Amino acid sequence: HLARRRARATDLPPLPFPHRRSLSVMAALLLCASQSSASVDYGDAVAASFGDGSAADDLWFGLATAPAHAENQLNDTWLEFASRGGVHAWRNTPRAAERLHFWTDPEVDIKLAADTGVSVYRLGVDWGRLVPDCSLDRETPCGVQQWEVLDRYIEIIKSVRSHGMRVMLSLFHHSFPRWGVTWGRAETPRGAAAGEMFTHPRSVEHFVAFARDVIERFAPLVDFWVTFNEPVVFSMLTHCMGIWPPGPAVTNPYARLNCMTNPKTGALLAQNNMIRAHRQIYALIRANELAAQLPLAPVGVAHLIMDSRPFAVGFDSASTLFIDLYSKYYFIDQLKETLDFCGINYYGLEIVTGIGPGLAPKEVEYSGSGRGISPTGLVSLLEAYQARYGTDPKARFMRGDGYGFVVTENGIADSQDLLRPAYLLEHLLALRAAQRRGIRVRGYTFWTASDNWEWADGYCPKFGLAAVNRSDPLLRRVPRDSYHLFTKVVRSRRVTVAQRHAAWRRVTTAAANGEMKEVCRSGDALGSLDTPDRWPVLGGTTLPDGRVVDWRYDDAKVESPGAEDTAIVTDFIEHSMALSSATGFDPAAAVVSALAGFGHEFVGRPPPPPTLPGGGGGQDTAAVLASVLDALDAMQRRPLPPPPPPPPLSHPRVRCGLCWRGSGRATGVGGVCMALQSVHRRFIHLHAPAD
Fold first, then answer.
1. Which residue of the set 409, 426, 454, 564 is catalytic?
2. 3-class secondary-structure state, position 293
3. Marked catalytic residue, from 71, 205, 230, 365
4. How far is CA 272 from CA 107, 331, 408, in A?
5. pTM of the predicted protein model
6. pLDDT of 464-488, one tens digit each?
7. For labelling, which of 29, 434, 555, 587 has a CA lying 20 to 30 Å from the CA of 423?
8. 247 contacts 192 by C-beta, under 8 angstroms
9. 230 catalytic, yes or no?
C-alpha cells in the first residue's frame, strides 16, 4: 500500500499488481545473463517436452479460425456493422469485405495449418449463411434453409480431415444472423439491442433448430464440438457496451451496470438463454451419436478468461473482484454437468479501472491488440479452476470420463513479429508447468494462421503466424518467423532452451535499441484505431522504481487460488470504512444492498433488501445506483457513531451459507462472505430507524 501511495505521489503510474515483488539481485543477474546469451551454446537442452503424442494426456496442437474472420461472400451482421462505420481499420484496408477467401478457396489456410504439423483445426459454421430468412418472433423454429451451403461446409471439413487434422467445430462464434438485430436503435437504460439476439425468448428455439440440422449431417466428421465461443464477451460487448453489432455504443455507466447485473435483461439474460441452448444441444449430440453408433465427440464451450488486475487499490480492487466473479465462473458453473471439456480462450492481462479496462503502458508489455502479456497468469487461472471444480462431482470435464481443459484460443497481435516467438514459447512452458501441477490440459490451439478481420478492431491487429498481402487479389500469405518456430515446436513436440533464449533476446534487443511496436488499442482501453499507435518495447528494461520488465513464465509467481480475492475484498472494505468514518455513509453497504435486491429477485429468497437512501428497493440498478450517488452528494460530513455489537451469523440478513461450502474462512469466497457480513452489519446500523 505504501509503495502504491508513493507511486501516486510521483510521475510514476500506480502499480497494478498488488502481489508483485521487486526482482532479487540474483534474478537480475540471471536476466542480464540471458540478454547476453548469443555466445552461449545450449546444445539440445530441453525447456519443455510434450511427449511423443501417443499417450492420451499428451498435449495436442491446433490452429483456429472462424467464419466472420475468414469467409468471403458472407453478408453477415459484421459486414453491415462495418458499412455503418462500427469497425475500425476497415475502410482504409484493401479488399476488406473479402476477408480471407476461406469460402471459395479454403485450401490456402487449411494447407498453411497442416504444414505446421498440428493435429486439430478449429473452424465454424455461420448460422446466418445457413438460415438467411427467419424472424425471432416466428413461432415455428427455423432450421437450416440453404442445404447447398451445408454441403459446402461438409466439403471444407472433409478437406481438413484429408490433411490429417481432426475437426473442432464451433456452432456460434460472435455472429448473430441479420434477422435477429435491428439497426439504428437508441441506447436505453437496459443497454443496446435489448430484446434482440439471445435476449429474445425464442432465440433458444431457433438456435437449437439450426444446430439440430448441423449435428445430424456433421456428426460423423466432427471430433470436438464448441457450442458457444466466449458467450460472456459476446453478451457484454453487444448489449452492455454496444461496441459490437448492432450498437449503438452504451455511454451511460448505470445502463452498463444494469445490463451486467439485471437477470431480466442484457448480458445475464442472454447468457442464461445460451446456457439453455447448450444443454439442449448437448443432449442432441449425444442422442445422435448413440443412434448412429458413433464415437462420443467431446462437447465444450470456448470461455474467455483474463488475468485481471486492479489499476489501483480501493474501488478498482472491488471492480476487479466483481468482474472476475461475473466473468470467470458463472457460465461454467451453470454448464459443468454438460461440459466434456472446459475450453479456455486466454490472451493475457487486463488492467481494471472504474468499471472497465484501463492501461498501464509504462510498466506492462502490451500486444498489438492492447492486451498485457502474462503467461504466468494462465497457470494461476487454471489453478483457480482446478481448485473450484477439481473435487466437484458435477463437473463432468474434471471427472475420470471427462476430457479436462483445452486451450481453445491463445495468440498475440504483433505485426512486426517481435514479441510473438517469446509469447508462444512462454505460454507453452506455462501449460507444461500446469500439467506438472496435476492440471489436465489436453490441447493447445493457437490463434491464428493468417492475419484477418478482428471484430470491431478490423484489420489493425495482426494475429497471424502468416502476414497477408491485401494489395494482392489472391491475398498471398507471407509466413513470419514465428510460423517456422511454431512448426518446429509442433513437429518436435518440445521447446528447447536455445529457442527460449533466442526468442527473449529478440524482445530485449528490440527494447535496448529503442524499437517501437504497433498497438491498435485507443487511449480509453476499450476502442481501437484505424492506424496503429507506436509504443516502446519493454521486455528487459528497468522501470524507474527498479523493477525489471520480465514477462516470461515464472513458476514462483503462480498465485494460490483465493489469496487475491481476499486481498481485493480487504482493500475495498478498508477504503469503504475510511470513507464511512469521514462522511457518515458507507458506499459498500449501499452497493451490496442494491445487488442483494437482484439476488432476491433472481433467486426468490426472502427477505427483500432494505430501502436505500433516496428511495429505490433494489429493482433497477440504474435507479438504485443513481440514488446512492445522490445520497453521497447530499450527505453532510458527520462523525460515525460507534457500531453496535455484531449480530450472530444466523441473523437472517447476513446469512451466507452457500458461500461457505468448500471455502476456508480466510480465503476465496469464504473470505468474501466474511467481508460482506461485516459491511452489512455496518449498513444495518447506519440505516437504523433512529438514524
1. 409
2. coil
3. 230
4. 37, 8, 22
5. 0.81
6. 999 999 999 999 999 999 999 999 9
7. 29
8. yes
9. yes
